[in-house]
Amino acid sequence: MNSVKKAVILAAGRGTRMRELTDELPKPMIAVRGRPILQHIVEGLRDAGVNEILLVVGYREEVVRGFFGDGRAFGVAIGYGRQVTQDGTGRVVELGRAFTGADAFILSYGDILLDPRNYGVLAAPGSEEAIISVRRNEDVSKGGAVFVDADFNLIDLREKPKPGEPTSPWYNAGVYLFRPGIYEFTARLEKSPRGEYELTDAIRALALSGKRVRAFELLGDWADVRDPEVLAELNRA
User: Fold this and answer.
1) Contact present, 92 and 83 (Cβ < 8 Å)
2) Number of domains forming the structure of the chain
């Protein structure tokens, strides 16, 4: 299997929980340890051999475009897609269809920081249709609960389960490997009870269709830079 060379990074949101910190910046451009979150992601992907990146932008997109340009200064080729309507993570993935074509690709949310070694693992997949990264014992009420079998294959995925609902010790960590088959399932999405098209619904449908979706426990550090408290902790470390 050839290594993966393409990645799509979702960086269109403002990040309202960051309050005044995102008055002038989209959340992925907030600095962690002296560099924008998005720069950490781009450079980690580059060092894993991923050299073609699509940044999906929206809020204050000019900040992202002005910083990264065509990517040459960072050793990669960067293109842009624009999310016009903020209607969830499922539909926005469709913006990558022309860019990824028939190739497998890594997808990351633009506010996820992780040990760069993980990009190398995701960039060298086996025969599975998709890989979902997971962390153990995070608060699944803030994200997705990932249910796996004895071979660590995905058997179910539940977004923000409420008290009393089935749960799992495995938390959806927000970085994936997809083959183009995912688009068949994002195209069929209907709005969730939250009124959004959820990527997790497409991944769940992919797994339930009989395709193999493998879970991968991330190595080392990981952070969802979701709010000022997480940001402050990261910058103190």
Assistant:
1) yes
2) 1
**What is the three-class DSSP state of 21?**
helix
Is 115 inside a domain boundary?
yes
User: What CATH number does residue 78 fall under?
Assistant: 3.90.550.10
Cβ-proximal residues to 80 (8 Å cutoff; 6+ apart), any chain: 54, 55, 56, 57, 61, 64, 65
Domain that holds residue 25: 6-236
Measured distance CA(103)–CA(6) in Å, rounded: 8
1: in domain: no
Q: Could you count the other beta carbons within 10 Å of the beta carbon of residue 155? A: 14
pLDDT value of position 110: 95
Tell me how crowded residue 128 is: count the other CB atoms within 10 A of its CB. Answer: 17
Cβ-Cβ contacts under 8 Å for 165 (sequence gap 6 or more):
158
Is there a contact between 66 and 36 (Cβ–Cβ < 8 Å)? Answer: no
Can you tell me the distance from the alpha carbon of 80 to that of 69, in angstroms, rounded to the nearest whole number? 10
Q: Give the chain's mean pLDDT.
A: 94
From the list 68, 47, 59, 44, the residue with the least C-alpha distance to 11 is 59
Kindly state the percentage of the chain with pLDDT values over 70.
99
